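Researcher: Let's run the pair from yesterday's discussion. Sequence first, then tokens, for each.
Model: Starting with the first of the pair.
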Amino acid sequence: MHDDPAHATTASAPAGVGNIGVGFDLLGHVFDGPGDVAVVRRIDEPFVRIDTITGDAPGVEKIPLEAAANTAGRALMALREGLGLAHGFAIELDKGIPLGSGMGGSAASCVAALVAANALLETPLPLQALYPFALDGESVASNSRQGDNVAPMLMGGAVLATADRIIPLRVPGWLHCVVVHPGQVLETRRARAVLAEPYPLREITAHSACLAQFLLGLERADEGLLRAGLHDLLVEPRRAPLVPGFAQVKAAALDHDALGASLSGAGPAVFAWFASRAGAEAAAPAMRAAFQSAGFPARSWVSPVAAPGAGLIESAT
């Protein structure tokens, strides 16, 4: 092996809230909280390898070291293939996001590795150009291609993620979130399996009305439209039974005047949006207590919705 320690970069990617309830596989935002870190080295050999995976999240030892079966490894394989690179990459991952948490842990590893590897290119790509490679990496975890986690992690804030575009959304500075994670694990594939049955057209129409109001609410910084639109009529009813305590946590958020609350990604984490930081900070203890009363210790984070995305920590020349 011919590793060059001078050609190495370190990047971090934050946790995220996929779907934002009303936008299944389309919407997402990041928040100030846990994150994943990737150290990427340029190597002479024409392949991608993962050297180490560390972190204090339970089950981190089960994450595959085989590059093709790992979201970060697969993303850098796609980068190499897409750009026709002659050299390869070696990756070290430090997992800070709990596994199976609904906070985008698989996506964060993938995005952190891409941002670090991109900095090693002779001509780094714009962050948006990394999106298709991030989708390739994320597909390893969910067996599907959706950008609701990787897109906001690349760009920061809240985004609309289509099959081939990242569209940043306007986020008013007063908008804050609470994210609460219980001591539960819910695999994304299991959470997607409960969505297989078809939906009645009337439910889809009602949900579309919520999505339209939500997007207009962000564009206009309109608290009333956000409150009217932040309702997941399609996915939440089917996934909520997979998360013991969810109903109580959502009720606690709404009792503290949340604009809305739902599952973060596939769950079991729960998020809520608030019209001020003070409102979010007041609600967080009650949301934690609701999970605890259901028998699950919980952690919470309060953050602006317009939080920063992935970035370099250090770079050697």
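Model: Moving on to the second of the pair.
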Amino acid sequence: MVGRSHRRRPPMIRTFSARAILVTCVTVIVSVVVTALVAMPVAVGSANRQARQGLVDKSTLTGDVLATAHPADRENLVRRLRQQGIEVYLIRRGGADQPGLPARLVTRVAAGSPVDQRGVVNGTRVLVVGRPLAATGNGVVLTTPVVTASVAPLLGDLWFALAAGLAGGIGAGVLLARLVTTPIRDAAVAAARLGAGDRTVRLPVRSPTEMAELATAFNQLAADLATSEGRQREFLLSVSHDLRTPLTTIRGYAEALTDGVLGAGDAPASGRTILDEAARLDRLISDLLVLARLEAADLPVELIPADLTELIGAAARAWAPRSAAVGVPLRTDLPAGPVVVRTDPGRIRQVVDGLCENALRVTPPGGPLVLAVRADPDGGIVEVRDGGPGFTDDDLAVAFERGALYRRYRGVRKVGSGLGLALAARLVRRLGGAIEAGHAAEGGARFTVALPRGTSSDDGSLSMNDALGYRR
């Protein structure tokens, strides 16, 4: 616990505002120091050039004064130069008036050669300018210390710049923090309201671009969430109605049997009714469970090579008696040879059975039910067509939305639970295929299932995209 307390950062530094101010202040300080360090050599070089040029000019003036002026004026000139930090050496008859100058410099000036260089005089690095005078063996030498880079004077000069930079950094940090954190705080508050159930909350879309994109994404999320919850409420209402209907029937017959209203002769018919309603209830619950597992990517799917011709032929033989019982002729349109795709035969049969059940529910006696298979360059096609009332163009746009057609046609014609087509669409997409609704040549609805020739690895496992229900 003690170690954690030592590692914990101060609460102030955890806020974006404090970090923005700190970063801008550090940036200003570093910028000022780096600029000073980079500019120091340039400034030193410029100062030495100016000092050298001044020394050259003063050596010319000094030489003229020493050659013609009164001795008192010469002394005043030398005193003023020394007050300016310039040391004056007079050379008479080949010797300097004071020690310190290197002998070779004295010799050169006495010999009539000018000098302009750097050197060491009395242990100090100096700029040296020497000029010979008219008289042989005489001259004047001026020296001034070389300007060097000293950190202490530099830092002394930077205090004001650093203070001004800190003030500017604090101001810029506060402005930046206000500019950035205000939209973030607004988004946090809006997210809290959204999490609390307020689906009307929206964020203003304003600059900068990143904040505008964040606000747009949040608003779209809120709108999609409201739409999704609205659909879920409608779906729950419709499913609760479907659940209540068979339960009511079962409860009614159970109460009648318990109260003795139904005699012994009515028991078989009552039992069949209860059994049918229980089977209907079981199918509805099974569909709900399959849908939930599909949405959670938790439904096992095993892909193997399968012959659609054989698979649909078997489905037709299984549905022929039920079709004949309701007066609906079942026809097949199958190719002569196999159409092999890589899929889960059990799941495809589940899709076909659901489509056939929907077709028999709405197809009147005499209307056909057709199961067809045809080859495709990319795989195989399965079609289920009927002679029922079919779909309008508006119906086709929402045919596979959960409960959409149920809400639209409830009370108008026979409808199921509203789950069958949604379940079929999700199963087909899970298998890497595609399903489409359209108008059948027989006058009713047409469902086309396209299955690819192969969408998985050799071991039959689905890819990540397929497992999540997406298709490339």
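Researcher: Give me one sentence on the second I can quote.
Model: The CA atoms of residues 166 and 309 lie 81 Å apart.
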